[in-house]
Write a structure and sequence with these properties.
The strands form 6 sheets. This protein has a 5-stranded parallel beta sheet with strand order 18-17-19-20-21, sandwiched between helices. It has a 4-stranded mixed beta sheet with strand order 1-2-3-4, with helices on both faces. With about 1000 residues, it is an alpha/beta fold. About 45% of the residues lie in helices and about 15% in strands. Helix 16 (about 400-415) links the parallel strand 14 and strand 15. It starts with 5 loop residues before the first helix and ends in a 10-residue tail after the last helix.
Length: about 1000
């Protein structure tokens, strides 16, 4: 609300007091917009006409703008109130238009003469309303007319006329500019439709449109702009009637026949228009039937002038309302019957790609209420057909909601099947804005696009003027001939064959010892005497071996430790403490991985296309074509292990989460800022999106030097992703765009979430939970997090306490007799040094296990690069893959067990959406590709449920859903197993994401 400065307010009060003779204590003034409100009160209510007479005479001689602040806009009207002191409501109110003071004085004088009769007749003084003056197109009158509505909101109005030169070389035309000023920033949706209605109600001539500018007092830049279409309603009706719109034709005919007291009803059947003429008012049923000749003489010229598209004839009926049979019928031929250009229906024209027809059909679809369109201008559609995409911009005084228009438009365009159109892009904005508020895209057919489309103004930007397509030869490809690096890799593969032979020999030896069995062997045992004897023998040997190892380690430490006990006590204390979590962070499954995996490990195929997984030359069914992929980068396994061991953050019981977090923190420390793009998800993200390829592809699209990091975690569900984004990482450590690459099984709320269950039982989770109340509300942690972390801990508390007590007592007993227990920290340090020296060999071994298409448990030990990406070179071959792995149908797949998208995973996803919106982070979910072998009928049904679930959520702001699940179902060379991509597929996915115009990539 505008208020006058204290000295100016005092001046106004004194001026009113002097003019009316009322004490200054009985005068109050207030400025709101362009209106001045004056309240006069006393022990008795001031006389209305006497007070007004004195005040009007003073107004004739005073310029109110001198009495107000220089920053205050002009005053258009004055409201005068009178009341008795102590009353809440005024006894009378009178509005004074400052541009008609003389007429107000005449009215007041007449009222004073007739005061004894309390007559309020003007006696000949006629006050012209602001509306009547505004219809003449006078800008000052238009401003006064609008201020009647906006001043109550504290908004002052000014109007100006400026010349506007259209871009299509047409002559200059007048454009009406409305400037709204207020002490606050009013919401555009609050003022847009009221202003549009009032301006269009004036039916101004000579103006195509009006521009509304809202600005806060004291600011130099406008707050927002709004364009109002001033096309007269009659012109809008004729435009739609020209396209054969039945409702518009009925309105026009009603206006013509209303003077004849004839009502009209219109319907369309096939290509014939049926017009029923009845008496406009006939409550008693005595009105005569409309005259045939008169009606036809009024209707025929209108229809010939309109020439409705696709309507060949019209049948006119004359009857009384309620009669079943008409009294007379006549048939009229319309221009479409003679001119073939008018004979084609708008829908048929739209199917051929006729843009004006498409625009009409879309505007009719989006404006079902004709009255509302005529009142406000409705939703306007702008169309641009560029290459194989149809760009559709929807604007209105209030930006159309995406869920209101996007699905209607895409469904309509899909039904048209326009030739050459492979996709549609829909945008929404407020009329007057250049940039769209939201966008939505749908590809009708599979398409490739290397240059993003310029969409906001439907014109190519200077960067893409030539719309050049990047040459395929500029992309990295594998050379068909053997390079030096490939030869070296082949030699390493041959050398690793000896490792496989040794593993097989060791496996046979362990099986013969009867301490180990085949992993798929039945768990039933015969507890006979022979088995007990063997157990005792091996138990004794194990105990002797333990004692011997302890003695040997004690001797080694004694030799490597200096004689001074003080020096020994301080040898690398910080290193041992920091690295203690390296071994304690491993869970039981990691300890037994060696025995369950080495017995089945086979030599992987090299990157070369010459040898297969068995180190023999490939058979005829082996793919021989070279695939494009980003060059392999240096592995980060050893660095990640070391960083995780030195980290002060406790372990999360998920080794890969610890290592990925350590790599990410190192990246933050090195760059000083988060990456520009963060990829997150399960192993499908870890192996499916290549940061290097994505960064390079984005550079070709005009986004150079973008930093991309892959934070994929094997087995990560929506709960795990929610925990990492909202609780493990700080908001300042997150980028402005997150690519969540995964699929339906990560959102299955019906299965047991093993990964999150392990995470929730970790020390790191407890520490994060303790920090949460100080940094966020207690509701920030997902409900499932609390349940799985705290409740399960309470249930197992007694068992854990008992185990801990037994463990402590055994540690104390063994420590008293062990020669190496006291120096265990030094032993750990020596072992870690030895492990780091073999880090390169471990990386090679990890790569070998990975290319065998192993499970997530073995993948967790493999080597990612410094971008967090896990590149696999193996290509999925069903004939060989199912010799080593069982074909599991969807109804027996635990990942889809009791499949449902509602539940704990959905709750976590909703938390991520709200968090991303609050932090203004763009969240893009990519449904990753799958093979046809994987998508059996059961899984395909679950995928469809997941698709519907994601499409419902796609209406959320800052969230974009892209579906690639069936992109390359038949291209097995892009996959390492039925549901995971290899590095060749990751390269293609990265390219496709970079070329997607719907993803708002950051610009440096």
């Amino acid at each position: 609300m505008k208020t006058v400065l204290p000295d100016r307010q005092q001046s106004l009060v004194q001026w009113v007091s002097q003019a009316t003779g009322i004490n200054t204590f009985g005068v109050k003034v207030r400025l709101r917009g362009n209106d001045l409100h004056i309240l006069c009160e006393g022990t008795e209510c001031p006389q209305r006409w006497r007070t007004l007479s004195d005040l009007l005479q003073a107004l004739q001689q005073t310029n109110l703008d001198i009495l107000t602040s220089s920053e205050q806009t002009s005053i258009y009207q004055v409201f005068v109130y009178g009341r008795r002191k102590g009353e809440q409501r005024p006894s009378w109110c009178h509005r004074v238009h400052l541009n008609q003071i003389d007429k107000h004085l005449d009215q007041v004088q007449q009222a004073l003469l007739a005061d004894s009769e309390k007559s309020k007749q003007s006696g000949g003084a006629l006050i012209v309303s602001n509306e009547s003056l505004a219809r003449q197109g006078n800008p000052e009158a238009i401003a006064r007319y609008l201020s009647e509505t906006l001043s109550t909101l504290g908004v002052s109005v000014q109007a100006k006329i400026k010349l506007h030169k259209p871009k299509n070389s047409q002559p200059e035309e007048n454009r009406l500019w409305i400037f709204c000023q207020s002490s606050y920033s009013p919401d555009a949706s609050l003022l847009a439709e009221p202003i549009a209605q009032k301006l269009r109600y004036l039916k101004l001539s000579g103006y195509q449109d009006a521009v509304i500018v809202s600005q806060v007092s004291g600011e130099t830049a406008p707050d927002w702009l709004l364009r109002v279409d001033l096309t007269p309603p009659e012109v809008m009706l004729k435009e739609w009637a020209r396209w054969g719109d039945v409702q518009a034709i009925a309105r026009l005919l009603t206006e013509v026949l209303s003077g004849l007291k004839v009502a009209v009803q219109v319907s369309l059947k096939e290509s014939t228009l049926h017009i029923f003429c009845t008496p406009a008012f006939d409550p008693l049923g005595t009105a005569p039937i409309p005259d045939k000749v008169v009606c036809l003489e009024a209707i025929l010229p209108q229809l010939e002038a309109i020439a409705p598209q696709g309507i060949l004839a019209a049948t006119v009926y004359g009857q009384k309302a309620g009669d079943k049979q008409p009294t007379w019928i006549d048939w009229l031929a319309l221009p479409a019957a003679k001119h073939p250009a008018f004979a084609t229906s708008p829908l048929d024209l739209a199917n051929t790609g006729d843009e004006p027809a498409i625009v009409f059909l879309l505007e009719r679809l989006l404006n079902p209420d004709l009255d509302w369109r005529l009142l406000t201008g409705g939703i306007r559609v702008l169309l641009l057909n560029k290459n194989d995409l149809l760009h559709i911009m929807c604007d209105a005084p209030v930006c159309p909601a995406r869920q209101q228009v996007a699905s209607k438009i895409t469904q309509f365009i899909r039904q048209l099947k326009i030739p050459g159109i492979m996709g549609v892009r829909v945008y929404g904005r407020r009329a007057g804005n250049k940039e769209p508020f939201w966008h939505y895209g749908l590809d009708v057919e599979h398409r490739q696009r290397l240059v993003p489309e310029a969409t906001p103004e439907f014109a190519a930007t200077s960067k893409y003027v030539n719309d050049l397509v990047t040459s395929e030869t500029s992309e990295p490809i594998l050379r068909p001939d053997l390079t030096t690096e490939e030869v070296q890799s082949f030699v390493k593969e041959v050398a690793r064959d000896w490792t496989a032979t040794a593993s097989s020999t060791a496996r046979k030896f362990l099986l013969k010892s009867q301490l180990f069995t085949e992993s798929n062997q039945s768990a039933e045992h015969n507890h006979d005497v022979q088995g007990i004897k063997i157990a005792l023998v091996w138990g004794t040997l194990g105990l002797l071996l333990t004692l011997q190892t302890d003695w040997v380690l004690g001797r080694i430490i004694a030799r490597t430790t200096p004689s001074s006990p003080k020096v020994a006590s301080v040898t690398l204390p910080s290193s041992s403490e920091q690295k203690a979590s390296l071994t304690s962070g491993k869970n039981q499954s990691e300890k037994t991985t060696f025995f369950t995996s080495t017995s089945k490990t086979k030599s992987p195929p090299n990157q070369s296309s010459v040898f297969n997984a068995s180190e023999f030359t490939q058979s005829d069914d082996t793919p021989k074509n070279n695939l494009a992929a980003a060059p392999l980068k240096e592995k980060a396994t050893a660095t990640a292990i070391l960083l995780a061991a030195r980290s002060q953050m406790p372990s999360f019981n998920v080794r890969q989460l610890d290592e990925q977090l350590a790599l990410y923190k190192q990246r933050l420390a090195r760059t000083g800022s988060p990456p520009d793009v963060l990829i997150i998800g399960s192993s499908r993200a870890l192996r499916g999106v290549d940061p290097a390829a994505l960064s390079k592809a984005l550079a070709t699209q005009g986004y150079p030097d973008l930093d991309v990091f892959n934070f994929g975690i094997n087995g990560a569900t929506a709960q795990v992703v929610d925990f990492v984004i909202r609780h493990v990482l700080e908001p300042s450590e997150l980028p402005k765009i997150i690519i969540w690459a995964d699929g339906a099984r990560a959102f299955n709320g019906g299965r047991e979430d093993i990964t999150f269950k392990s995470l929730a039982a970790s020390v790191g989770y407890k520490q994060v939970s303790q920090k949460t109340p100080t940094t966020a509300s207690s509701n920030d942690l997902p409900e499932n997090t609390v349940n799985s972390g705290e409740q399960k801990t309470n249930e197992e508390k007694q068992d854990i306490s008992t185990y801990q007590a037994v463990n402590d007592s055994l540690n104390q007993a063994l420590a008293s007799i062990s020669a190496s227990y006291k120096n265990r920290d030094q032993i750990k340090g020596l072992l870690q040094k030895q492990l780091l020296t073999f880090g390169h060999n471990q990386t090679v071994t990890s790569e070998k296990q990975l290319t065998d298409g192993s499970s997530d448990e073995s993948i967790s030990q493999q080597a990612v690069d410094f971008d967090g990406f896990l590149p696999l070179s193996i290509r999925f071959n069903p004939a060989r893959y199912y010799q080593k792995h069982s074909r599991v149908p969807g109804n027996y797949d635990n990942d889809y067990k009791s499949f449902q998208v509602e539940g704990q995973q959905d709750t976590a996803f909703q938390e991520v959406l709200q968090f991303a919106q609050s932090q203004k982070i763009s969240l893009v979910f990519v449904n990753m590709p799958l093979t046809a072998d994987y998508l059996d009928p059961v899984r395909r049904q679950y995928e469809q449920e997941f698709q519907q679930y994601m499409l419902r959520l796609a209406t959320n702001p800052n969230f974009i859903y892209r579906d690639l699940s069936q992109q390359w179902t038949k291209v097995n060379d892009y996959f390492s197993d039925p549901s995971h991509l290899n590095r060749f597929g990751a390269y293609e996915v990265s390219k496709k994401l970079a070329n997607d115009p719907m993803i708002p990539w950051p610009v440096k």
